[in-house]
Amino acid sequence: MEDLRQSSEWASYMAKIGWEVADLGNTKAYIRKIPFLGSIIKIPRFNDLYLLEQIDTLAKKQKAFAAKIEPNAEIDSEKVLRALENNGYYLDNWSFAPTRTIRVDLTQSEDRILANMKKETRYAIRKAQGLNLESRIMNNEEGLEEFINLYKQTAKRTGFWTGPIKELRLRWEIFSSAKKADLFLASQGPALEAGAVVFYHDKVAYYYHAASSESGQKLNAPSLLIWEIIRAAKKRHCLMLDLEGIKDSRIPSTKNWEGFSRFKKGFGGQEIELNGSFSKYYVPLIGPLFRFIQKLGI
C-alpha cells in the first residue's frame, strides 16, 4: 500500500508550505532550500528501495547537504538495513513520521474487531454509548473551528506540540476537497467532548489529529470516536486503520507518548515497528557534526 505521505494530496500540501516536489518513479521526494547549507531532501514512507542511486543524483542536482529517508518497511527487514548502510545512511534518533504504530485490520467483522480489543477498551466504548454521547461526522467550517478550539485546549492541558494550526487547516482543506477526510466529533448536549481528523488513502484510514476535553476523557469519548471511525472506515471499504504513532524507544521525542500509546494498544491492532529514519550527508563536515549532536541527545 502507498502511504498517506506519498499521495498526490500530501504532495500538494507540501508544495503549498514551501517544499519542492520531485517524482522518482512512483515515489515523491520533498526538497527545501536551507540558507548557507544548500538544500535538504526528505522522502517519507517510500516503498521502492531501488531509488538510492536516484536520490544521490537528485541530491547532486539540488546541491543537497543531506537526504533524510524513512522506508515503509518493518524492522525485521535486514535487506533494507544492509542496503542503507552500504549506501552511506545512518540511523537517526528523530523522525518526520511515526516509526512505530498500531494498525487495526478492518477486513474483520465488527464483532471480531471488538473481541480483539482489550476488555477495558470494550467497556469504555459500552460505557460511552450509555451516556448519551452523540458522535457525528461534521465536514464543514463550523465543525473544523470547533475541533481546532478543542485541539488547542487539549494541547494546553497536556503540553503536546500542535504544529502550526494554519498547516492543519491546509491539510484538511486539501484532503477534504478530494473527499479523503472526515471530521468526527463527540458531544454531550452542547459541549464538545472529543474530536478526530481522519485522512484516507489507498484503502487505509489514518487517525491523524485527535483532541478531547477533560470531561470527555472521563466520559470515554475518545474510545467511542475510534469505534465510530472503525465503522465508518469499513463502510468506505478501507482495509486498515492506522492509529498514527506510539512510543518508540529509538526516538527520544516520543518518551512522553506512554499514555496515548497505551490507549491505542487497547484497540487490539497489530504493533508495527518500521526500520526507522535515516540520513545521508553529502557535505563532509556536516555529517560528523550532526551525528555528534545526535549522540548528545540535542
From TrEMBL:
Keywords: Acyltransferase, Cell shape, Cell wall biogenesis/degradation, Peptidoglycan synthesis, Transferase. InterPro entries: Acyl_CoA_acyltransferase, FEMABX, PG_Glycine_Bridge_Synth. One of its GO terms (molecular function) is aminoacyltransferase activity. SUPFAM superfamilies: Acyl-CoA N-acyltransferases (Nat). The keyword RNA-binding does not apply. The keyword Cell wall biogenesis/degradation applies. GO terms for biological process: cell wall organization; peptidoglycan biosynthetic process; regulation of cell shape. Belongs to the FemABX family. PANTHER family: LIPID II:GLYCINE GLYCYLTRANSFERASE. This is BioF2-like acetyltransferase domain-containing protein. It comes from Candidatus Woykebacteria bacterium RIFCSPHIGHO2_02_FULL_43_16b.
